[in-house]
Amino acid sequence: MKVVLFGLGAIGTEILRRLVERSHDVVAVIDTDTGKAGKTVAELTGLPLGVRVQQTLAGLAAGAADVAVFSTKSRMADLLPDVVLAVGLGLDVVTTSEEMAFPLHAGGTQAENLDRLAKDNDVSVVGVGVNPGFVMDWVPAVVASASNGPTNIHVVRSVDVGKRRRQLQSKAGVGLTRAKFEREAAQGTLGHVGLVESAHLIARSLGGTFDDSKEGIFPVLGSEDYVLGVRQFVEGKVGACSIRLDLEMSTTSADFDVVEVRGDPTIKLRFEKGVFGDSATVALVVNAIERVASAKPGLITILQLPLARS
Q: Domain 2-129+280-304, what fold?
């Protein structure tokens, strides 16, 4: 595959490393960091690539690449202009943007317009990742498909952020006072993006819509009201089936994931030590790059991405 990579941060660099290992052709690397612009990938990462980092996609000719990969922003609106540009050049798009896992929730009319543009250009746009995109939505959807008439789906993801990158610790509010946590949570700058998208994906897999939804975000507190992490939930219904997703990310959390579907039969699945987000995200992105050409055109979800490579 001929690949354009947007974002040369921690995850983007590991995606790039895996693409090189699998002999894909990385034709361009885009990063808005002025300190990286003009330098070669080899200079910045040590990988054997002489491609120079650009700040924009300007100059890429139509047909020069097959897929654009975005490992940059969580919010759909923040990367939409570049995604539209890539789609206009005839590129399939794979992105780690959490809101793009179920873009109709956050994107509305913009998502509908992007869907039409992708279909007009005969390409696919898909959001992938560990969460959303795997643990709290794709796995429950698969488990629920083996249960007749599921009445309740409950997923718990617990993450020890002490073992994770500082960026995730900051998103979890580690080290803040309780008052500052509550201010930033109210502004939407703290916590995990994508929990409600996971709930919508589960509902879609069951053939319905996610209704009567409620969400909450709370600090995990240590001594003197200093924050050790974040606890979030979303719950609602799809038809007669209740959905509840619980996420805790703190320095005192144990690593595990649990998926339980109550029905006939009731099925409970537990991942001991959890699914490690960074390395699993890299694997999911590269596998999506190798399968997206087989997907139907348009703005799709992980549920519509083929399991088999073309």
A: Rossmann fold (3.40.50)
Instruction: Yes or no: say if 247 and 136 are a contact pair by the CB < 8 Å rule.
Output: yes
At 208, give phi and psi (nearest 5°).
Answer: -135, -165
pLDDT for 242-262, tens place per residue? 999 999 999 999 999 999 999
- CA proximity to 195, closest of 183, 213, 181: 213
Chain center to CA of 142: 18
* Strands (DSSP E) found in the chain: 2-6, 25-30, 53-54, 67-70, 92-95, 124-127, 148-160, 211-221, 227-238, 241-250, 256-264, 267-272, 298-300
Give residue-wise pLDDT tens across range 151-209.
999 999 999 999 888 889 999 999 999 999 999 999 988 999 999 999 999 999 999 99
Domain boundaries, the chain: 2-129+280-304, 138-274
Distance CA 182, CA 191 (A): 11
Nearest CA among 173, 177, 170, 169 for reference residue 224: 177
